[in-house]
Specification:
Layout (H helix, E strand, L loop, with lengths): L9 E3 L2 E3 L2 E4 L2 E5 L6 H14 L5 E9 L4 E9 L4 E6 L2 E6 L10 H10 L5 E4 L6 H9 L3 E5 L3 H13 L7 E5 L3 H8 L5 E6 L9 H6 L1 E13 L3 H12 L3 E13 L2 E10 L1
Parallel strand pairs: 4-5, 9-10, 9-12, 10-11, 12-13
Antiparallel strand pairs: 1-2, 3-4, 5-6, 7-8, 13-15, 14-15
Helix pairs in contact: 2-3
Bound molecules: S-adenosylmethionine.
S-adenosylmethionine binds next to helix 3.
Length: 270
């Protein structure tokens, strides 16, 4: 049986690719450019013979635009981009052509859910299809506000909440808004125990606003892209905190490119 591969070089017969991912019953093979499509198709043919449970095969050229959606080329099998993925027993509705999803974040979704506590008010400012929100709601009786400006992502989140409704302990309120507008609208109306900011390419821009909605002692999990040392990450973040927060931990979460990783910075509002 083939597992999801995301690092190093993977082989299928004589064919070699730097990486591929399995999402539900769909395989996504990374291509650096259009010229590699035919090599990816040959690799997909080999995979399809070894893993008959895989039904659709796509090449991914890049992750694009404000919604961080994959640019895909169909290679083989069904022309279907929707599937269902399980993370720690939670069924997630995924559509790789409509909203961001990365199976390598499953452990991170769990890690944050385990840090959370019953009764918390949580804001997931860049929820995507709702990995963090659904993990938290499945473990804790908390109230989670989940937001993304991609309406397709939010509609997948709502579908997943319905799939898992019998195991949900918490409530999720979902909105489709620009994060800046949501922060503005919530100002003075609510404060949160925990704020999750998982949009590594632009999350720092919203940190100052998010801290105004954090209660004293509240946690903010900020995800940033960096190739640099902890000290440099602090320099990137501290100007946006206006000394309202202290950094409790910095952890590398996933590799983003050969030279950059996604880091989680855990902040505590003072
Ligand atoms: C890295 S993806 C989210 C991943 C998601 N948290 C998960 O764990 O799967 C970043 C998400 O942020 C959303 N996003 C980026 N900037 C935004 C903004 N200003 N307002 C609302 N959503 C935004 C994108 O649409 C995208 O779904």
């Amino acid at each position: 049986m083939l597992n999801s591969e995301d690092a190093g070089s993977v082989k299928c017969g004589q064919l070699k690719r730097s990486s591929y991912l399995v999402i539900g019953d769909i395989a996504i093979i990374n291509a650096s450019n259009e010229k590699e499509i035919e090599e990816c198709r040959a690799f997909a043919k080999c995979l399809s013979q070894k893993a008959p449970y895989l039904k659709a095969f796509y090449a991914k050229l890049s992750t694009e635009g404000e919604y961080r959606v994959a640019k895909l080329v169909h290679l083989l099998g069904e022309e279907r981009t929707a599937t269902i993925v399980k993370e720690y027993g939670i069924a997630l509705a995924v559509d790789i052509a409509k909203a961001y999803y990365n199976p390598r974040l499953a452990e991170e979704h769990r890690r944050i859910a385990l840090m959370s506590k019953d009764g918390e008010k949580v804001l997931d400012l860049f929820s995507g299809i709702g990995g963090f929100a659904l993990h938290i709601a499945s473990l804790r009786s908390s109230i989670i506000f989940a937001n993304d400006w991609n309406k397709e992502a939010v509609s997948l989140l709502l579908k997943s909440f319905y799939f898992n409704r019998k195991k949900m302990k918490g409530s999720i309120y979902a909105t489709v808004m620009d994060a800046a507008k949501l922060l503005e609208e919530l100002k003075g109306k609510i404060v949160f125990d925990r704020i999750i900011m998982n949009s590594p390419t632009n999350s720092v821009n919203y940190l100052e606003g998010a801290l105004t909605l954090s209660k004293a002692g509240g946690k903010v999990h900020l995800y940033v892209l960096s190739s640099r040392e902890e000290e440099a990450i602090e320099q990137l973040i501290m100007p946006s905190t206006k000394s309202d927060a202290s950094i409790e931990a910095i952890e590398e979460v996933i590799e983003y490119s050969p030279s950059k990783s996604v880091f989680r910075v855990d902040l505590r509002k003072t």
